[in-house]
Design a protein that fits this description.
This protein is mainly alpha-helical. Helix content is 78%, strand content 0%. The chain contains three helices and no strands. The chain has helices at 6-31, 34-55, 76-135. Helix 1 (6-31) runs antiparallel to helix 2 (34-55) and helix 2 crosses helix 3. The longest helix is centred in the last third of the chain and has 60 residues, at 76-135. The protein is globular, with a radius of gyration of 17 Å.
């Protein structure tokens, strides 16, 4: 199954993110540990990212074949946008920690590097796609 329409992509991301947030809240209630909840949330986000990058297809992108492992988006612009969003989310943990109390301090060392790593992966994917286009290979 491939998701090719913008509406389908937005719906998948919104529903997936709601599920991830609800699972994170349930994990906090069930364990009482924001650190465990953050780890569970990140694991679910990894699953959502893999699902989306493997099933979404951009305009003009072949639908049937699998994408190369490094290709996370249909084109460089969307990858740079995703990188910016994930980077902002990662950076926000550094801003929240001084005002967020013990829970924020416990979660930040797990969450911030994760979001920044995902941002770097999207940048890598987009830069690689740009280089391939210059060579005429993509």
């Amino acid at each position: 199954m491939r998701i090719t329409t913008p509406v389908g992509k937005v719906a998948a991301v919104v529903v997936g993110y709601i599920i991830v947030l609800l699972a994170g809240l349930l994990a906090v209630v069930a364990t009482g540990s924001p650190t465990i909840a953050a780890a569970a949330t990140i694991a679910l986000l990894v699953g959502l990212l893999v699902l989306c990058t493997r099933t979404f297809r951009g305009a003009g992108e072949p639908v049937e074949p699998s994408r190369p492992w490094w290709r996370l988006t249909g084109g460089p612009p969307s990858g740079f946008v995703m990188a910016a969003l994930f980077a902002l989310q990662g950076i926000s943990y550094f801003l929240v920690v001084p005002t967020g109390g013990d829970d924020a301090a416990a979660v930040a060392p797990i969450a911030a590097p994760f979001y920044l790593l995902v941002a770097a992966a999207f940048v890598y994917s987009s830069v690689r796609q740009l280089r391939m286009r210059k060579r005429g290979a993509a």
